[in-house]
Amino acid sequence: MARALPRPHRDDLRIAVGGLLGGVLLWALGVHPRIAGDSLVLWHAPWAPLLPLTVTAACEPLRRIRPRLGLPIGTAALVLDTVTLGSIVTIVLYTDLIYAAVLYGNPAAARRIPRITGMLTVGGAVVPAALWRDPQALLIGVGVGVVAFGPAATGALVRNHRDAAEAARLRAEQTALLAETDRIQAVTSERARMARELHDMVANHLSAIAIHSTAALSIDDPGTSTQALTVIRENSVAGLAEMRRLIGILRDGSGDHEPAASPTLGGLASLVDSARANGLDAALDAGHGEVPVPVGLAAYRIVQESLTNALKHAARGRVQVVLRQRDAALDIRVTSPYRPGDIPRAPGSGSGLAGMRERVALLGGAFEAGPDGPLWTVYASLPLTEGVTA
């Protein structure tokens, strides 16, 4: 299917019509650059200048859409104009064709035309002067320079400025796109971090509340109900405190609440005691020294989430938390009784394991979780590299 030719620009049509009318007006007034007795005038018909004028004007609509076609036709028309009385408008229109061919043509033409017109300018000045030995012959080169090289050089200069402006615009758009991408990634990363914090801080308490409220509703025993309600109240208060801490983290420090300190490995004993209070048979075996703050926070959250999962899913039996510090890493292992097919005591979202895996990945460590015979094992190895960031 043939592709339709692009429509000429309206300004180019105006240039063509205006040039043609102006040339006809000068022809009617008898204004010509040459006189009838000039030796260069070979075509003496009075209407002869109108032919190259019309052809050159007809090339103007092609100056943007087909510059490689318009310039050769205009050149032929200009050569024809030199053997007639001529028209100043034809010369002016031709200079515009050269300018447009450099500005709107392909890059090869934009480089080639100024070189060719430059050589023609030099040749037009040197060769006639050398042959005729007349300094006046240098004016031929000046004329060629004004008609051809000047417009070509101007077009090249304007094109270079235009290309530089376009390149600057593209760089600005690329910079803005990269900045927006970085902003989206930063927001996504921060939302993921806050989601992990919210899940780790609140899920443990809400799981205990769900389990003990179920026990209080299913067992018709005042003592059991009182004990369950006591645990529910303790976890509600603790969960509220954790939520306040999270709100403190989200504040910018200008409000009434300052962010509380992040949990550390020193709080693991209290964490295990809280798990025992919730009815979990948990034991802690910790052997570690000072660790970087991000490692300590990640280890605390991994143990906290593991105890929460054990409270919801583990079978009856001992839940063992073991921490061992090596030269370059802190190893965490949490084991709990496991029986396939058991119904969870509280619903889960499945995001706990994903959150632990993300925490370990951010620190460049290793993480495994899954059944190991009669036990469910959570294992994480966190590198103790200097400058680790959470």
Can you describe what's shown?
The chain has 390 residues and is of the alpha+beta class. It has two domains: 10-174, no CATH class; 264-390, Heat Shock Protein 90. 62% of the residues lie in helices and 10% in strands. The protein contains ten helices and five strands. The chain has helices spanning 10-29, 50-59, 67-81, 88-104, 107-132, 138-218, 222-250, 268-277, 293-313, 351-362; strands spanning 282-287, 319-325, 329-337, 366-372, 375-383. The protein has a five-stranded mixed beta sheet with strand order 1-2-3-5-4, with helices on one face. Helix 2 packs antiparallel against helix 3 (67-81) and helix 6 (138-218) crosses helix 9. The longest helix is centred in the middle third of the chain and has 81 residues, at 138-218. It is rod-shaped and about 130 Å long. The protein starts with 9 loop residues before the first helix and ends in a 7-residue tail after the last strand. 29% of the residues are buried. Residues 254-259 and 386-390 have low confidence and may be disordered.
Rg over CA atoms, rounded to whole Å, is 43 Å
Instruction: Walk across the major sheet and give the strand order.
Output: 1-2-3-5-4
Total count of helical runs of at least 4 residues: 10
Portion in strands: 5-15%
Which segments are poorly predicted (pLDDT under 50) over 5 or more consecutive residues? 254-259, 386-390
Shape: rod-shaped
Count of distinct strands: 5
Strand count, sense and barrel status of the largest sheet are:
5 strands, mixed
Class from helix and strand fractions: alpha+beta
Helix-strand pattern: HHHHHHHHEHEEHEE
Residue share in helices? 55-70%
The figure for the number of domains is: 2
N- and C-termini, Cα separation: 60 Å
Average pLDDT rating? 82
